[in-house]
Amino acid sequence: MAITSLRINDFRNLAAVDVIPCVQGLNIIAGHNGSGKTSLLEAIHYLGLGRSFRSASSSRLIRHATDKFSVFAQLLSSGQRDIPVGVERDTHGIVRSRIAEKDAASVAELAYLLPIRIINSQSHQLFEAGPVFRRKYLDWGLFYHFDAFFLCWRQFERVLKQRNIVLRDQLSRQELDVWTAELLKYSIELDNFRRDYINMLQPVLAELTGELLDMRNLEIHYSPGWDDSQSFAEILASNYHQERRSGYTQVGPHRADFDIRLDGISVKHFLSRGQQKLLICAMILAQGMLLAKCVNKSLIYLIDDLPSELDLYSRQKLISLLAKQPTQIFITAVESETICALLNKSDVSLKVFHVEHGNVGAMAKDIASQS
Ligand SMILES: Nc1ncnc2c1ncn2[C@@H]1O[C@H](COP(=O)(O)OP(=O)(O)OP(=O)(O)O)[C@@H](O)[C@H]1O
Ligand SMILES: [Mg+2]
Questions:
Q1: Residues 361-370: tens digit of each pLDDT
Q2: Domain CATH for 320
């Protein structure tokens, strides 16, 4: 899926923006600080995921002194007709999402249609922050790879909540046993999904880290959320009194995590900031490549401020890798030349947009070839 045209109104400082991006290839969004580059990526992200990647409050996205924003796009679906999609949000918090002239049933419906991955300065949270970010990373991939995953995940969340209420309110053993059986069922299912996904991801990631970091032996070390030298059922049984005292479910898929290791040592202990960024790019690209290969779905990459933290050599390697991806990529940079100068323009579809005070214009002179 790719965006063939994009219209943004009153989103941050973007009052009225029309963009015809290159469908397969690189779209470079260049402009001075504060011009609106990240806002453009944020608008695309909001369209696909119903939330911003930098503001918890969506009302902050509405352009000052206006009362709603909207983002519309035409999506090209593997050779079929364009599908119109859109999202609007007003100051009262009313959100309207549309797909092909009908109201979208849920955010998940748009997300399924428009897979989006962002790489920005917050992506370092994958290493630096808690396991929730790594679970989100895995679950994002699972959502697209396994049809049954989303329902299983939702059931697990529901059961976990109920079981925690039983523990907190000191309800009967009988009641607890009912929810424990349910928890076991969905936990094993979730765990299997996550293990299968990691097994598929591992070789793709190793290939990419070989290319970007000269590290081919990186391993994803998965922990399911309990000590897996024992069965989950045994652990729950032996934790009975402890859980009764604490009033919540202490182990399970809601505690799952993974670690990336080289020769048994976690990379978070020795990778430099720039190397971390390259690894994050490899991790996100691996998900996209797997999606294209296994599910025949292409995702849209949003890369905010690609040049930051990377030296010329790393930038060159990353750009060359991105240029080879058969998908749509939006990249921001203060100066377009920091990226364009590294590209062999005859090999890549490229479009450059210049952003100035919230206005976006295509720079014809930089367009090498368009898809
Ligand atoms: N709700 C809003 N209404 C109007 N303007 C806003 C709103 N929110 C943010 N802005 C302004 O939008 C502008 C664009 O911000 P944005 O973060 O997109 O810039 P940028 O081009 O990515 O800059 P940088 O190169 O510094 O990352 C900023 O000047 C910001 O102050
Ligand atoms: Mg920015």
A1: 987 544 444 4
A2: 3.40.50.300
